[in-house]
Amino acid sequence: MSSLSTAEIPLRGLTDGELVEALVDPVLDVSEIKGALAQLQGQAWYLYIGVDQRIFFGQTANVTAEITEIAANIAEEQVDQTLRDKLKEVFLPRAASLYSDRMAILPALDDIRLEDDRPTLVILERPADALPPDFVSWWEGQDLQNRVLVLTADPNAVSTLRLIARRTRAIDRVEERIRVQHGDASAQMQELLGVRGREAAGFTSALRETFKTIVFPISKSLRRVDDFRMEFDRNDYSGEQQIIDTLSKRGKLIPNDRFDEQFETLRLDAEDILFDADAVQVTSLRRNAAVRPTWYWLPRNGLDQLVRTAVQRGFWRDKDGLVEKRWERRTQVTARLDDFAPNPLETGRFLINVTAEDADTVYVSEQGPPDPAKDKQLDGRTYETAAPAVWFLAVDSKGEAKTGDVCEWRAPIRVKPDVRRLSDGYRVSVLAVPRGAQRSERRLTGQIRKQAPPSPERLSRRQAQASCASWPKSVANFPRRKRLA
To answer: Which domains does the chain have, with CATH numbers?
Structure first.
């Protein structure tokens, strides 16, 4: 009766509180009344909500009637595509740490495309307790068996999701019409937004009952886990994160925060599962990680991180494009000049950085290859010398690695010329290191020998250089060139 007032400014309808007060019953829960009212608002064609939030019946059909009429005529293919789009939003890989955005949602088997580097999420409309035999046969015939991740959807719940997807597509069409005819601020648009909100809430509620089983490959079969739960935080749902949590709990996925903890297990299992020989290419490891279901799932680039860490810690070796899990260990030592050391021309000495591999002791000699029985050990990682050559030998005192080759370091020749003009000629000084440098003098076009100093006419075009002499500094005086008449 509250909807039938004919007054000039009528007070029509009842508030939520008044409706609950009228319908309340000692054996009836108030929440059930509110749920029934919400359901009625989504189905009744002549039910309205006024600007004062009072609910009443009108004489003309509301937007619900138009939505229902349009929804009944939408093709099934369009409904399925809308449902796929909505589920893609729910399971969108925001972090992209497990599966890619190329998901297969309610697919035909021929539409599933697997990737080499990451699993593909496949959502199947099947009961939780059984996968279709044709899908199992399809998986058994795949090469990339370790790249399949399945989420099963309960068929009854999917029917509810399809109904909501159908109405959602109809709402989009009605919204376009209202925006053109009445504008975004119209009462019809506000009513439509209310309907859209109720449909979104219904979709979220149906999702909770849709997905309960996750399936992943292990050994030579597919393993089913029935404790997958849809958890919503303020109506926000990250399907990707909940899949990651479930797989981490079951040990199939090793997340980044557990990599160091599980490193030793990963390394040993990789040597057993991924290596076909003692030395293989990285591409072979990646391929085996994709085709062998006994291997784990790692975050993106996780296998590269495993290889890099194992090499850094000395368990594996990366050499000549191959990753080796077993090899003959030989000591190796390298020596190079410290680029940031003081200038040897000023100090007369070189500072050498020494790096040893598979060794804990380095012997050094300035007279030739070191003899561990009589030559001294290097203290630290640097060596200072004025010699033109130094030899280093790395040794593993534990005997785990064979002694490798001697490293011979040769001092670079550094020369500093100084030409001064005198009253009767020029004074040329040449400073050279290392201490074994010999003096020679050269013109631009030829060698000037010590026994034959250059003529004054050629002095302006000469240069001095040092190479393997016994004098670190030499001086020569030349007369000034006479002018020609």
So the answer is: 76-248 (no CATH), 254-324 (no CATH), 332-410 (2.60.40), 414-479 (no CATH)
